[in-house]
Amino acid sequence: MADPLPEALGPLLREARARLAMAGVDDPALDARLIVEHFSGTTRTQAIGDPERSMDGNAIAAIEAALRRRAGGEPVHRILGYREFYGLRLSLSPETLEPRPDTETLVEAVLPFVEATAAREGTCRILDLGTGTGAIALALLSAVPAATATGVDISAGALATAARNAGELGLGRRFTTVQSDWFEKVSGRYHVIAANPPYISLRDIGNLQDEVRDFDPHLALDGGVDGLNPYRIIAAEAARFLEAESRIAVEIGHTQRNEVTDIFKAAGYALAAALRDLGGNDRVLVFQWG
Q1: Which residues of the chain are modeled with pLDDT < 70?
Q2: How much is the pTM?
Q3: What is the 3-state secondary structure (H, E, C) of the chain?
């Protein structure tokens, strides 16, 4: 059993970092700082300027519990209960995928089209399939005040999280949710359909990093036998929900560019753009009709 945590902020941070390093955490210094700051209500500036600042017993107990969870493999943002995405703080829940920086590539890919559509039409209607935390839709709404979005998810828990995030960000009036298996209960027409669908093949789920395999919901990971089922559904059914001038943007696995492009081309779409993530991997494809 580990020794009790120190009561002063500076020594507490050092002990937290040492424990996580001993547990083999990839970035123990960052994760220790995030945990200590979150559960003690302190800042990095205070840790540097006032390292002897005393922590109360409740904070120390919460930090102790969080360190045990992190050392056991639980991702730090799951423990904190939120993740930053495109400058927005988004609450997480067990039913939501943890939004990751690579998905910001999708936001950047369609943002100019959303802005241009809103300027021309007075609005831009966005359909976010598999919305999860609402990350994609809410990022676009935060950047384009005239836009509106509908978040679709099969999980009621995910939709509750997305709606809560929209409310906390002041975007609730422009964001609605629909519980639906893809397009099953969707109505209306949209200028943009966006999706970060499940794209891991069934055989590869067991090979994912522990933090993904054990803590992200499998519904948000499982793309079927070859990982391409969601793209087939979107390509086959999207047309009746699209405005004449519209775009479909999807995140893909880094090896799936050709296969996903072929699926959409066979359904009558043309590739409008292909973007790579910060690591240089193929990440987002944008399609238009015709």
Answers
A1: 1-3, 199-225, 290
A2: 0.89
A3: CCCCCCCEHHHHHHHHHHHHHHCCCCCHHHHHHHHHHHHHCCCHHHHHHCCCCECCHHHHHHHHHHHHHHHCCCCHHHHHCEEEECCEEEECCCCCCCCCHHHHHHHHHHHHHHHHHHHHHCCEEEEEECCCCCHHHHHHHHHCCCEEEEEEECCHHHHHHHHHHHHHCCCHHHEEEEECCCCCCCCCCEEEEEECCCCECHHHHHHCCHHHHCCCCHHHCECCCCCCHHHHHHHHHHHHHEEEEEEEEEECCCCCHHHHHHHHHHCCEEEEEEEECCCCCEEEEEEEEC
